[in-house]
Amino acid sequence: MNSGPDARTREFYRDVLRRLQADEVPFLVGGAYAFERYTGIARHTKDLDLFLRRGDCGRALDTLQRAGYRTDRTHPHWLAKAFSEDAFVDLIWSSGNGVADVDEAWFTHAREGHVLEVPVRLCPPEEMIWSKAFIMERERFDGGDVAHLIRACGARLRWRRLVRRFGPHWRVLLSHVVLFGFIYPDERATVPAWVPMLLVRRLVREQPRPGTRRPLCLGTLLSRSQYLVDVTHWGYRDGRRRPTGRMTPHAIAKWTAAIEAEPGPPGPDAPAESGAAPPGSGATPSPGIPLETSP
């Protein structure tokens, strides 16, 4: 059983926290450390997640480079890393889909805490729910984390602020609220009654979208791999791309290219999906795309 980072890694994490604080680079601790603080669930991962404003990333990297650590702007639209041998720290200023930018509200509503005996500020639970709610990959689904955060923090959550965070993507929040009531039938009152009522009213009143030459697929905001076939072969517009999203074609291409380089079940990219066009789409099946045979 994994008991957490070894002594050398823990000292690396402490050094990073203290150096950023000494240089007055504002940051928040998120990931497994904040998750444990809020839920009591300990999950020992191989990294430390630090959230900061986009404009502060350069300062943070400069601080850590001067300390002798190797740094890398791994995905310039949301993530950089600092390394000490095989240990690393993630510096995060957005989310992989470009939705959850770190802004001033993250810091305004941050919570006080300690990580590895260092006093720090933690990501607010509302922002953790917001960013985790969109992670629905084949190899990683953060819905359980969302449910556990609602269970642990629901009575103290700023629900109106959380609803505003989701903005036009309120259906994603509704899906997690519905699942929470399924997972914890005896704790449905944890979510204020007005939240599902508001979101369901939006659902009922929503007008059908007019047909367009290139229909929109927002599935890419939930999974960078499972909806590639929609945008590469079936003619759908990618919901991550401007103006509907915040990502550039270059950022999308780099984020997609990293799929095969990262650990996880093989074959989550577009070529593993069926090339058959969806019924009624009018799209032409792409030749040479094998049908998916695994369940």
Using brief descriptors, characterize the structure shown.
36% helix, 11 helices, alpha/beta, Beta Polymerase, domain 2, 295 residues, 9 strands
Short recap of the structure:
The chain has 11 helices and 9 strands.
The count of DSSP E runs of length 2 or more, i.e. the number of strands, is 9
Kindly estimate the percentage of residues that lie in beta strands according to DSSP: 5-15%
Strand order of the largest sheet: 1-2-5-4-3
Give the CA-based shape. Answer: globular
Task: Please describe the biggest sheet, giving its number of strands, its sense, and whether it closes into a barrel.
Answer: 5 strands, mixed
Mean of residue pLDDT?
Answer: 89
Tell me the span between the first and last alpha carbons.
Answer: 30 Å
Number of domains: 3
Helix percent reads 25-40%
The CATH architecture term of the largest domain is 2-Layer Sandwich
* Helix/strand class: alpha/beta
- How big is the Rg? 20 Å
CATH level 1 class label of the largest domain = Alpha Beta
* Number of contiguous helices: 11
CATH topology of the largest domain: Beta Polymerase, domain 2
- Uncertain spans, ≥5 residues at pLDDT below 50? 265-274, 283-295
How would you spell out the order of helices and strands? HEHEHEEEHEEHHHHHEHEH
